Amino acid sequence: MKVDKSIKVKLKKKKGAPKWAMQPFKDFLQSTERLSHIVRISEKGISMIRATPKIIEVLTKAESNKSQKEKDRLKSAREEAKLAQQEVDMGFPVLHAWAVISLWAHLESLFRIFIATWLRHKRSAWKIDAIRRLRIKVGEYESIAKDERHIFIAGQLERELGAGLKAGVTRFETLLEPFGLSGNLPACVKRQIYEFGQVRNLVAHRAGKIDNHFLNACPWIDANLGTELNISKKMLGSYYHASLAYVTLIICRLGELRGVDMSKHRINVEKEAVEQMEK
Fold first, then answer.
1. Is 30 a domain residue?
2. CA distances for 54 relative to 62, 81, 83, 192, angstroms
3. Is 63 a member of any domain?
4. Is 65 inside a domain boundary?
5. Rounded distance, CA 176 to CA 134, Å?
6. Does some domain include residue 7?
7. How many domains does the chain divide into?
8. Residue 7: pLDDT above 60?
9. What does the pLDDT look like over 30-70, one tens digit per residue?
10. Is the Cβ–Cβ distance between 277 and 192 less than 8 Å?
């Protein structure tokens, strides 16, 4: 039986974003969920350390064990318990600072990998002006394995566009724009991602010590010049939720690009983002 050509075309243009385009986002979700679990487990673990000296004291007393080894063990446990208590009292600032660095790294990696994946699977993407204008050394390009050239080009594009020098979502939207994948975002999401980026930079480049640049960039944060920023659980949670909201909205763009009605999901994400911001 002959199949009409128009039907063949429709079969080829299946609705929905391809699996290869979704994989970077799935990996990001898995990584951020793991990070969130590790933070929670670490908070519980640090809290539990405070009880260790008392247990050692009871065991030592019950066994009448006054050896130097047990004395050293008790001394070490008390020092760790003291440090743990300080972290608990301050709201786990060191742990949250590390989490901020890690979460931002996952976000940067997501976009870098996504653009590379887009180039790998969509040959038409190599024809856009931003790619054509890249200044690449032929010898360097030819020395790269063919199945890794899309990664190299993605990195070159990021540098050429100066994406790493831009703040907030602009840092990521700059990479998406040449491929027609950028778009509007709720003001609350943009503000939270912007603050997230500024806090990350402060931790990474200033060891968390507040400077004039940070005060001018985020005047809504109550902080004093020269002091160390205490990243609270609420702050870390807001960055986590803002990142997920932003990534979800990009997934909506990809779905809409392939003819899927994502309006309900988009509205829900934007509503939740506003509610989170108001908490």
1. no
2. 12, 10, 15, 43
3. yes
4. yes
5. 16
6. no
7. 1
8. no
9. 999 999 999 999 999 999 999 998 988 888 888 877 788 88
10. yes
Q: Are 99 and 39 in contact (CB under 8 A)?
A: yes
Question: How many CB atoms sit inside 10 A of residue 77's CB?
Answer: 19
Query: 224-270, pLDDT tens digit by residue?
Result: 999 999 999 999 999 999 999 999 999 999 999 888 998 998 889 88
* 8 Å CB contact between 153 and 135: no
Give the 3-state secondary structure of the chain: CCCCHHHHHHHHCCCCCCHHHHHHHHHHHHHHHHHHHHHHHHHHHHHHHCCHHHHHHHHHHHHCCCCHHHHHHHHHHHHHHHHHHHHHHHCCHHHHHHHHHHHHHHHHHHHHHHHHHHHHHCHHHHHCHHHHCCCCCHHHHHCCCHHHHHHHHHHHHHHHCCHHHCCCCHHHHHHHHHHCCCCCCCHHHHHHHHHHHHHHHHHHHHCCECCHHHHHHCCCCCCCCCCECCCCHHHHHHHHHHHHHHHHHHHHHHHHHCCCCCHHHHHHHHHHHHHHHHC
Residue 64 belongs to what domain range? 45-90
How far is CA 193 from each of CA 141, 149, 217, 230, 241, rounded to the nearest angstrom?
34, 30, 13, 18, 10
pTM of the complete model: 0.87
Please tell me the distance from the alpha carbon of residue 228 to that of residue 211, in angstroms, as a whole number: 10
- Say if residues 99 and 35 touch (Cβ distance below 8 Å): yes
d(CA 59, CA 24): 51
Mean pLDDT score, 190-215? 96
